[in-house]
Amino acid sequence: MKSGGAPRRLEGLAFVAPFLLLYGVVLIWPLLMGIGISFHRADLFGAREWIGLGNYATALADPVVHQAIGNTLLLALLIVPPLTALALLLALALNRATRGAAVFRGIFFSSSVLSVTIVTLIWRFILTPDAGLLAVAADALGREPLPFLSDQALVIPAIAITTIWWSLGFPIMLFLAGLQQVPADVYEAAALDRAGRWTTFRHITLPAIRRTLLLVVMLQTVGQLQLFGQAQLLTGGGPGGGSRTIVLAIFEVAFGRWELGYATALAEILFAMILVVTLLQYWLVTRREDAG
Amino acid sequence: MASLALKDVHKSYGDTLVLDRVSLEVAARELIAFLGPSGSGKSTLLRIIAGLETADGGEVWLEGRRIDALPPGDRGVAMVFQHYALYPHMTVRENMAFGLRNAGVPKPEIDARIAQAAHVLEIEAQLEKKPGQMSGGQRQRVAIGRAIVKQPKLFLLDEPLSNLDAALRTRTRVELAQLRQRVDAALIMVTHDQAEAMTLADRMVVLNERRIQQVGTPMDIYARPANAFVARFVGSPAMTLAPATVMPGNDRFARVRLAGGAEVMTRVPRNGLVDGAPVSLGLRPEHVSLAPAEAATLQAEVILVERLGDRTFVYACLADGLEMIAQDIGSSAVRVGDRVGLRIDGDAAHLFEADGTGRHADAAT
């Protein structure tokens, strides 16, 4: 080309520079700094002492951290698969051009616009054993109300259900967008090919929305491994740390105990966990795609 | 026995009537073209036969079995979609096998049918490819292959050539003509291209305004269009319809006077035509020729010349503003702006009554 590569490239760079600068300052730089801080004994007031992998060693031996990692993984496991399946089912049911479907799309999405504060308030009213909605229902059936938020065995499922209810809207929208990419005539061809409902779903719909499915699972996994607000506001991590998640633990270490170095080390561990899990998901799905 | 029979099929979307009591019989192994402009109801009719739409009333019979209440897959029809509707994530082989597997056809038989169809359609080398890796023409072959392997009693083709470029279209037209010799089933194709319909179909069904306008062989429809719509829609360039009045007389055939004053003696029997009644004189380009002034019926000015090599179409404007298309030899020297004489071949002219009904030259004499 006659206009020359180098000046044009500089021109292009000038256009993206403002964004890159901001991105670097508020994201990349803190990320690198965080890694640096995690090798120090540091507090929020600026004291720094190099201790190498000391924080990481502490974390590996810390029963609180073990419990938080266990809670977080269990929550992700209890939330992501049912949430994905439920969102897909609802999207399939709502994927039509009727007015009723439009109304229900709005209803199902409405929970997503609420802040976590409102969501936990609502679910507190439902879950609380004294006069909560479920307690009233249990009472009407002549049974003892269950202490959802104060029983070690019930608190994780309770937070999972709250989160599923809150998070349903966005995956439904993603699935709907994916479903609408499938041309109608492909379904008609399948009808002429004697494909029943299940066959059509299994062989036409599912392969067509495979990428969307991967996106939803990855986004939800990333999101739920960072679950914080619901646990903090519903239970404060209790009872006995039974609902303390990793991010809640980081929060407590950083802003309760002022141990910034240890908190960033925990954050780096979470970062690595998320990276491994999502890459694994991506690899599992795309590997099958290449083979098939 | 008729292969397919439609009886009083009608359909509305809300208050909008899209098919008004359509009846039709298709013979075994016949190739029928549904021809009509957009919105004429031709695609809806095809989809009702396939079971993709439900008729509000009427019956659809295929080989002695009433099929209009059956789901699409149980009707014994196969369809080639306009945009092919191949399953994108399946290979060509899987695309063709899908319907057979759902129908419970044994595996060896599926393989045999696919092998045969692939051989006929020359897509053996593509069997393990996915549709996304193929050209439009190849995809169409796969779509046809997917229909053939089902060994249906009736093939339905929705605008089969509309997505192909001009060269491929002509080739595919020839291939479709050959294909139908090999399959033991009737074929119905929907098209808005009259050349496609004329070249391929045994009979054409011309649809417009929700109704069948005429059913007949291509030549029958071309030579004896039932009404003014059919006359204009079939044939390219379109037939000229010149306003005229029936002149009084005792001849066996009608003589008409054009709005500009010229008189044309036709060979359309005059019985039934009222003296002085307004009619349209229908003239195909090949029945209007350029002539020296003394032999000409009309004088006109040339406004457009289309040279096709073997012949030339001359679009001429009469003194009263009427546009008429004449045909001239390929080497015609006529140019835009020339004043020319037009000679009308009254023996071949058609007359259309005020309601559009066509009357044609008496073939017997």
Automatic annotation (TrEMBL), chain A:
Highest taxon in the source lineage: Bacteria
Residue ranges of every copy of the ABC transmembrane type-1 domain listed in the record: 69-281
GO annotations of cellular component type: plasma membrane
Subcellular location: Cell membrane
Alphabetized InterPro entries for the sequence: ABC_transporter_permease, MetI-like, MetI-like_sf
Keywords: Cell membrane, Membrane, Sugar transport, Transmembrane, Transmembrane helix, Transport
Transmembrane feature ranges: 12-32, 73-94, 106-126, 154-177, 212-229, 260-285
Entry-linked CDD domains: TM_PBP2 (cd06261)
Pfam families in the cross-refs: BPD_transp_1
Lipid bilayer topology: Multi-pass membrane protein
Swiss-Prot/TrEMBL GO biological process terms: transmembrane transport
Family that this chain belongs to: Belongs to the binding-protein-dependent transport system permease family.
UniProt protein name: Multiple sugar transport system permease protein
Organism lineage string: Bacteria, Pseudomonadati, Pseudomonadota, Alphaproteobacteria, Sphingomonadales
From TrEMBL, chain B:
Domain spans labelled ABC transporter: 4-234
Gene Ontology terms for molecular function: ABC-type maltose transporter activity; ATP binding; ATP hydrolysis activity
Matching InterPro entries: AAA+_ATPase, ABC_transporter-like_ATP-bd, ABC_transporter-like_CS, ABC_transpr_MalK/UgpC-like, Mo/tungstate-bd_C_term_dom, NA-bd_OB-fold, P-loop_NTPase, Transp-assoc_OB_typ2
Protein name per its UniProtKB record: Multiple sugar transport system ATP-binding protein
Organism ancestry: Bacteria, Pseudomonadati, Pseudomonadota, Alphaproteobacteria, Sphingomonadales
Record organism: Polymorphobacter multimanifer
One Pfam family per UniProt: TOBE_2
Family of this protein: Belongs to the ABC transporter superfamily.
GO cellular component: ATP-binding cassette (ABC) transporter complex, substrate-binding subunit-containing; maltose transport complex
Keywords associated with the record: ATP-binding, Nucleotide-binding, Sugar transport, Transport
Coiled coil: none
